[in-house]
Design goal:
Length: 479
């Protein structure tokens, strides 16, 4: 019992004591006067606080500072607010980059500067890349007598890597030719006229068949066709040594290449004529040679679409149209094995007998045209040509002159102009005899003049000077 009483006493004592403490705590908040010494923040207590949570603060309003100004950064205790100096900082520039990229041919530029002050961080040239984007195509269209250009150029800066001249009447723009009814048409089916010059016999004047000479002629005449006259007789292709024959063949090849380089069309002319060898008046006489030649050349150039094959120059003497047909029916299929290029077919009486042709035309071929030759100061009947065209026959004047048929004598300007008028009206193509410095008035170069590149008027005979106005005139009107 004594023990129980003692325990109760102790408990009562404990309860009394703890209540008294509780009252003191509550009073502390309500009555500052009652605060005891140990709860007041005094200097002595400061040392005891241990700052544990910080944030960085600055002592300035950044909006009021300029780039480059200094300000202090402090560490602030987030519990007691105490600040401690940390470091100095500088207001940075706000940089802006302006960049113009370099291209293949033009330097670029990069400028980095501060938006708020004149500070420039860097200002530099970005060197051009030289990485051209080369493409192939038309660089410049031709206009009138002025050549255009086609080739490889940079599509970004137009830098030209390689190019060749093209002409308004040239192969690049007109492409593969074909025959549509009576008309020669270009790759778009538009009526098209070839106007140009023929070489003289390659066995005598082959020296003019090269790119330099053809360029000189083309620059002056702006012709769009060259005709290469491969004589069969008179020491020509069928009547010469094997080595000379090979040389003549190579001259034809050279002529094709030169004309092609000049954006021109080219006629390969089997120039049978029989001026010396009576037999050669008939194309059947050298039929085997012709077969071999046309087979070889048309195969070699089967991918060229600027070549026309004139399979017989001027049948004459007793040669009939039936002979010519027989010959044509042998040669055309040989050419057709390789190409559907235009084939020019001659006829009797020095290729002036279109009446015979009209009575009995060739059958079964496309892209063939009938040739007609005239010399304006001789008795050639213009009607023979125009009637054939008007009746729907495709005709092509692969040789003509303004003088007599001998290739000499005066030029009959009135007559030749009439021919041009009638041919132009019908888009009939024509080729003038001849590129050489031989004696006759039909040779465009002065007799014995040694010019090879310069075909300005001082080197030319009257015929050359006049014919130049005809060929150029066709493009001048388009200027
Ligand atoms: C002429 C030449 C002449 C040559 C003669 C014979 O001008 O130098 O001696 O041939 O080879 C044609 C012929 C063409 C002629 C021309 C002029 O296709 O070869 O050239 N002509 O006579 N047909 C009508 C005229």
């Amino acid at each position: 019992m004594k023990k129980i009483c003692l325990l109760i006493f102790i408990m009562l004592l404990f309860i009394t004591f703890s209540c008294k403490n509780k009252n003191n705590d509550e009073n502390k908040d309500n009555n500052p006067e009652q605060q005891t010494e140990d709860t007041l923040p005094d200097e002595g207590k400061e040392d005891i606080h241990e700052c544990r949570y910080f944030k960085e603060v600055i002592d300035a309003d950044l909006n009021l500072l300029n780039c480059g100004d200094e300000y202090d950064v402090y560490n602030e205790c987030s519990e007691c607010g105490k600040k401690t100096f940390l470091r100095k900082e500088i207001v940075p520039h706000e940089l802006i980059t302006e960049r113009e990229e370099a291209t293949c041919s033009q330097d670029g530029h990069e400028l980095i500067y501060c938006k708020f002050c004149d500070y420039v961080e860097s200002n530099q040239i970005i060197p051009k890349t030289n990485l051209h984007n080369y493409v192939e195509g038309v660089i410049e269209m031709p206009k009138g007598t002025t050549a255009g250009k086609v080739g490889v150029y940079c599509s970004m800066c137009n830098k030209v890597q390689s190019s060749k001249n093209i002409y308004q009447n040239g192969h690049f723009l007109h492409g593969k030719l074909s025959v549509d009814g009576a008309d020669l048409v270009d790759q778009y089916g538009e009526k098209f006229q070839l106007v140009g010059l023929s070489t003289h016999g390659l066995q005598w004047f082959g020296k003019y068949v090269n790119l330099d000479t053809f360029t000189g002629i083309h620059n002056e005449f702006l012709n769009n066709v060259f005709r290469l006259s491969l004589y069969t007789s008179e020491n020509g292709y069928c009547e010469c040594s094997a080595s000379k024959k090979e040389q003549l063949y190579n001259t034809v090849v050279k002529g094709i290449e030169a004309a092609t380089a000049l954006d021109c069309y080219v006629i390969v002319d089997w120039h049978m004529l029989g001026a010396e060898n009576e037999n050669d008046k008939n194309p059947l006489y050298y039929l085997d040679e012709a077969k071999e030649f046309f087979g070889k050349i048309s195969k070699q150039f089967k991918d060229y679409d600027n070549i026309l094959y004139e399979i017989m120059n001027e049948p004459c003497g007793s040669t009939t149209w039936a002979d010519c047909k027989q010959y044509a029916n042998e040669i055309i299929p040989i050419i057709r094995e390789n190409t559907d290029a235009i084939v020019l077919v001659g006829n009797p009486k020095w290729t002036a007998d279109l009446e015979s042709v009209m009575k009995s035309p060739l059958k079964g071929y496309t892209n063939i045209m009938y040739t007609f030759h005239f010399y304006a100061n001789d008795s050639f009947n213009q009607k023979k040509l125009t009637n054939a065209y008007d009746a729907g026959f495709p005709v092509f004047v692969s040789e003509h002159g303004g003088m007599e048929a001998s290739g000499d004598g005066a030029i009959d300007y009135t007559s030749v102009k009439k021919w041009y008028t009638e041919m132009d009206k019908r888009n009939i193509s024509y080729v003038a005899w001849n590129i050489s410095n031989s004696k006759g008035s039909a040779s465009i170069i002065k007799y014995n003049d040694s010019t090879m590149k310069d075909f300005s008027d001082s080197h030319l005979k009257e015929w050359g000077i006049y014919y130049k106005t005809v060929t150029r005139g066709r493009l001048e009107t388009n200027n």
